[in-house]
Amino acid sequence: WRESYRRCVQIGDSAGMGAALGNIGAGYYQSNELDSADHYLARARAIAEPIRDWRTAGNAVGTLAEIQSDRGALGRAADLYTLAADIRSRTGDARGAAADRNNLGLIAGQLGDLRRARRAFDSAFASNRAAGREEPAAANLINLGNLSSLEGDYPGADARYREALALYRAHGNRVDAASVLRALGLLALQRGDYHQALERFTEALGVYRQTGPVADEIDVRREISLTHAAMGNLEGALIQLRRAEALAGHERPGPDQAAELAQLALAHADLAVQFNIYAEVEQHYVRAEKLFREAGDSRGQADAESGLGLLLALRSDFHGALTRISLALRTQEAIGD
Questions:
Q1: Distance from C-alpha of 105 to C-alpha of 147, rounded to nearest angstrom
Q2: Environment class of residue 237 by beta-carbon count within 10 Å: exposed (0-12), middle (13-18) or buried (19+)?
Q3: What is the pLDDT of residues 137-155, one digit of tens each?
Q4: Using 50, 70 and 90 to split pLDDT, how confident is the model at 253?
Q5: How far is CA 328 from CA 103, 122, 140, 170, 245, in A?
Q6: Between the chain's N and C termini, which has fewer beta carbons within 10 Å?
Q7: What is the pLDDT of residue 337?
């Protein structure tokens, strides 16, 4: 692309220059080199907009929005996704515009603007459904279901999840269908319908055991464990956590494995608290804190520190409790929680 850019400069091809710079920037983004990506994409946009090359401009703005989202600048990301969707709509790129609006909905949800999120998801869904893009439409439905669940509209969430499930199954997409089954399971768990939750999670587990990936099987086993715990079945909960730990232990060593094992250690600690097995609580929280630190997960590390603080307070070790909770608060402040 650099050679293409040089040739375009030599012949004065502005449209080609913008497209080449956009592709260079997109390549840097794929390599997680955000500063370089931002630099080249901004240059692509600066060339494309004055000459009304809206395709290049739309692609550049859309990727610039992703960069801002990755950096945590959510307000700026929302503005850029809105602009990207408008630009792509001008060029007839309905698929791209729908994707931008779906991403805008996710950002708006993170910002707590649920009405804006719903408008964005509704617009993306209407576009995808009208064009027969059923799998992207299913993803929009899942996001709408998540919003309904957040708002306490459980019947609405259930209806949207079921519609998404039907679309994925119609396309033979078993893995994404399994993710919807998990959403339905979590919804049932929230409503206190533990048998329905267990049925949904178990169905999803069957898919993951046949198709992978292992990380999803680990997550759904943790969810099955939560369901058994809610039903008062300590043995069933422990069995699922131990099976999940065995799977995680066979994963390639590194941050991802550490994160999985940390989540499971935290789940063990919470389970021990729930069933008053205090002799085991501390070791699980300490292990979770260590693993979260190895994984570079500050939020998880703060959760483990908080758990340790509460445990020490129960033991009347108020100095130790204050130290742990202060550490957790400092970590949360550092990451903006």
A1: 10
A2: buried
A3: 999 999 999 999 999 999 9
A4: confident
A5: 31, 38, 35, 46, 25
A6: C
A7: 64
Q: How many residues comprise the chain?
A: 337
Note the pTM of the prediction, 2 decimals: 0.85
The pair of three-digit structure tokens given for residue 218, joined into one six-digit string: 């680990």
Can you say how many angstroms the Cα of residue 292 is from the centroid of all Cα atoms in its chain?
18
- pLDDT, residue 94, reads 96
Cα 4 to Cα 9, 42, 148, distances in angstroms: 9, 18, 48
Residue 337, both tokens: 């929680």
Task: Note the pLDDT tens digit of each residue in 56-105.
Answer: 999 999 999 999 999 999 999 999 999 999 999 999 999 999 999 999 99
Q: How many CB atoms lie within 10 A of CB 289?
A: 25
Q: Where are the alpha helices (DSSP H) in 192-277?
A: 194-211, 214-230, 234-249, 255-274
| Token pair belonging to 296 | 């570079």
At position 154, the amino acid (one-letter code) is Y
User: What is the C-alpha separation between 116 and 93, in angstroms, rounded?
Assistant: 22
Q: What would the two tokens of residue 251 be?
A: 């994963």
Kindly report, residue by residue over 25-34, the tens digit of the pLDDT: 999 999 999 9
Distance CA 328, CA 293 (A): 12
Phi-psi region of 88 (alpha: psi -120 to 50; beta: other; left: phi over 0): alpha
